Amino acid sequence: MEFKHDDRGRAGLFTAGEGEDKAELSYSPAGLQDALVFDHTYVPEHMRGQGVAEKLVDFAVDYARSKNMKVVPACSYVRTLFQRHPDKYADVATEEEKPFGRV
Is the pLDDT of residue 66 over 70? Predict the structure, then answer.
């Protein structure tokens, strides 16, 4: 599956796949300098349960890391991933999003 980044200034869209097989994660600039708000993920119903959303989040997080940016996980799916895998995402999580006692 091919992952892409559609940069629309500081806001944008990360995608996986194409057409009816296209998953998306949108982001916008945060009020914090050098931070992105991951605000929505979408995976078509027929693709759910295959790990596509997590791979898409990992692709987006790698982008944030490459730009030395933090992530505000406003999307409930992204927030849940950050909470379940603090070791994987602690370096990009904003302070208010880091789980207590885990980092």
Answer: yes
